[in-house]
């Protein structure tokens, strides 16, 4: 049997479909021949459709790209240090219309963005955002780590081969040399034959240096001793004139000349805890951690450490050193100062105004200092975000004015989140606790001495990792793998420890999900420890243990891994996605947008929803 309607349709589509002329002979279609004709007609229609679709796609792409390749004039990467995802909405009713609300209303938000490794610290966070990969590849395993060959810990951006430019020796000997892969900012420089300018700005050195990459035009960070933005000879031998002029304005002192009062009447801070609670830490010189904070008095005298730093370096103390200008880091005005400098960088370097795509990497670090000191439920934290909301508005308005509305591509994210203060959680009957890293290290050392005799068995305990004295283990004819297993078993006896995984396990296995995946992604054999420790949710490390003040971060729990991710501006259509994505997807997404190569160690994937 065959379908007469299909035959009629086929005849309508194919000339002379009622039969086939061969020479002067014509034969009528049999059912078999008719079926073949129908199939041929359908295949022909499909081919024509695909050809037309391909033609239209190429035409659309050609129109989109035009005769010259379209790129944004300026890319601005905004990283808010210690910004939990819920901060986007927790203070929503208090935000203005031009900051976070504008980003979310006009931009595209990935609501389910997480870090996919531990430890979740500032150094690894910034490196992972800009390299598009995890510490297992880029090598930044913490803010510091133990170096076995040197017998000491090293800082993430420490570099004694370079010299300070514009600041004290200790603050300026910094570079990205420890980061082992390229960044998206490096790739932009390479793709434009170094015509693109890349500038990094933050009050933290690591918040500027790691995002700016290895080939940056400039990376600038804040020296709290002399109250100036500085750099190192890794980038340039002297500060540009515009930086010198900016520093001469002495803005840090001006910000610290006024008390820190709440932006709104304090009674309106209903999203936060009471002002005076035992789990917050006061500024040195304050009796209680409450508003108003008398910044003029608190900053009136430089701390002894500042004077000692200058004296040890043989430097003449600048006038600014008479005050504690480092205090600005721990106030919302550190964000204001950072944006002041970033705006001056855009103006002086003509970023986004030179006919080539430039990149500004801006990190707001003060929320991290405030969070560590007061905790995420504090009025201080809320006030910091209400004021940051105003700074975001100032940034977006300035971009509209100088680069042109729709010509800048902005993304906003965070380098990690933060845990609630354990005492705050326990006050509401929610499980939580803290451990003392030094106590854990010393207790482990004593237990190993009891079992195996005298010796310095534990070289360090850092980033929730145990570094063993491997030469001593070998000297005592112990099997390293078995010794690591023994240490892991011992660590499980500490309160708050839920897992302990050996380096050998991480090197010989592979996990696609779960806690072991987080550990594997954060493990770099030459820099990581012998045993990795995982704490229970709600537990954190307290260096003042048993006292718990403020908060910290570093775990694989959601409060540390879940962060905002919002794209705004150039070719971004408003929307949101709740699909699970990771922080390492930012760099390849930018690479796809800019039509450049991904960073050389990139393992993330482009986010297709925002690219459509």
TrEMBL record:
Binding residue positions for substrate: 143, 204-206
Entry's Gene Ontology molecular function annotations: alkaline phosphatase activity; metal ion binding
Keyword Transmembrane: no
Keywords: Metal-binding, Phosphoprotein, Signal
Active-site residues per Swiss-Prot or TrEMBL entry: 122
Pfam families in UniProt: Phosphodiest
Official protein name in the record: Type I phosphodiesterase/nucleotide pyrophosphatase
């Amino acid at each position: 049997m065959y379908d007469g309607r299909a035959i009629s349709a086929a005849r309508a589509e194919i000339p002379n479909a009622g039969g086939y002329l061969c020479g002067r002979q014509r034969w009528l279609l049999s059912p078999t021949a008719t079926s073949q004709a129908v199939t041929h007609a359908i295949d022909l229609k499909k081919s024509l459709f695909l050809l037309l679709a391909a033609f239209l796609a190429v035409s659309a792409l050609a129109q989109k790209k035009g005769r010259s390749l379209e790129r944004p004039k300026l890319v601005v990467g905004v990283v808010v240090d210690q910004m939990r995802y819920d901060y986007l909405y927790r203070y929503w009713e208090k935000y203005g219309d031009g900051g976070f609300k504008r980003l979310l209303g006009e931009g595209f938000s990935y609501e389910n963005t997480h870090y996919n490794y531990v430890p979740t610290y500032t150094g690894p966070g910034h490196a992972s955002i800009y390299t598009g990969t995890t510490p297992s590849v880029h090598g930044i395993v913490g803010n510091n780590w133990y170096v076995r060959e040197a017998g000491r810990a090293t800082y993430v951006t420490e570099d004694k081969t370079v010299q300070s430019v514009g600041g004290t020796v200790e603050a300026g000997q910094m570079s990205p040399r420890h980061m082992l892969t390229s960044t998206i900012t490096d790739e932009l420089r390479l793709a434009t034959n170094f015509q693109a300018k890349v500038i990094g700005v933050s009050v933290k050195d690591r918040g500027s240096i790691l995002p700016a990459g290895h080939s940056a035009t400039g990376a600038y960070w804040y020296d709290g001793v002399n109250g100036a933005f500085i750099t190192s000879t890794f980038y340039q031998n002297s500060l540009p004139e515009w930086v010198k002029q900016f520093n001469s304005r002495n803005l840090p002192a001006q910000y610290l000349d006024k008390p820190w009062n709440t932006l709104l009447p304090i009674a309106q801070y209903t999203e936060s805890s009471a002002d005076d609670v035992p789990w917050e830490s006061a500024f040195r010189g304050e009796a209680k951690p409450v508003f108003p904070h008398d910044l003029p008095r608190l900053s009136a005298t430089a701390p002894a450490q500042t004077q000692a730093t200058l004296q040890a370096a043989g430097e003449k103390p600048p006038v600014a050193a008479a005050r504690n200008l480092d205090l600005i880091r721990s106030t919302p005005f550190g964000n204001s100062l950072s944006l002041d400098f970033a705006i001056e960088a855009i103006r002086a370097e003509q970023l986004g105004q030179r006919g080539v795509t430039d990149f500004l990497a801006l990190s707001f670090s003060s929320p991290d200092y405030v969070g560590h000191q007061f905790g995420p439920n504090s009025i201080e934290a809320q006030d910091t975000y209400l004021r940051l909301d105003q700074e975001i508005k100032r940034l977006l308005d300035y971009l509209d004015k100088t680069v042109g509305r729709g010509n800048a591509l902005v993304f906003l994210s965070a380098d990690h989140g933060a845990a609630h203060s354990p005492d705050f959680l326990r006050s509401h009957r929610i499980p939580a606790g803290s451990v003392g890293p030094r106590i854990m290290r010393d207790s482990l050392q004593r237990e190993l001495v009891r079992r195996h005799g005298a010796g310095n068995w534990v070289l360090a305990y850092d980033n929730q990792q145990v570094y063993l004295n491997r030469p001593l283990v070998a000297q005592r004819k112990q099997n390293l793998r078995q010794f690591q297993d023994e240490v892991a078993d011992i660590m499980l006896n500490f309160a708050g420890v839920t897992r302990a995984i050996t380096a050998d396990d991480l090197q010989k296995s592979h996990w696609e999900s779960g806690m072991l995946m987080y550990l594997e992604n954060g493990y770099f054999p030459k820099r990581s420890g012998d045993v990795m420790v995982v704490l229970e949710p709600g537990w954190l490390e307290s260096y003042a243990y048993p006292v718990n003040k403020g908060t910290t971060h570093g775990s694989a729990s959601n409060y540390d891994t879940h962060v905002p991710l919002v794209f705004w501006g150039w070719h971004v259509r408003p929307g949101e996605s709740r699909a699970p994505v990771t922080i390492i997807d930012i760099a390849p997404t930018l690479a796809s947008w800019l039509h450049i190569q991904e960073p050389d160690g990139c393992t993330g994937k482009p986010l297709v929803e925002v690219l459509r």
